[in-house]
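Morning. Coffee machine broken again, so started the prediction first thing and wrote up yesterday's gels while waiting. Chain of 71 residues, entered below exactly as on the submission form.
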Amino acid sequence: TGSDAMTRSTLTADVDIALDSPEPGRTVMRYRATVTIKGRLSILGEMILRATAGAMIGEVAKRMRAQLEAA
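Came back before lunch.
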């Protein structure tokens, strides 16, 4: 949970991540995020926030892959 005094907005996120190994040498990661935004920040609209979240998740996955491949 976070808040911004300037925009009087709050953001609450609940993230679940599960790792599974369906076969040797292969790992599947599943994630689910529920985000609630209230205040002026919510006026930006779902499309912009969804695109930003998608880009952030892609970056996390890229960095995790690099770390796992280096191990």
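The two ends are 33 Å apart (CA to CA). Going to sketch it on the whiteboard this afternoon.
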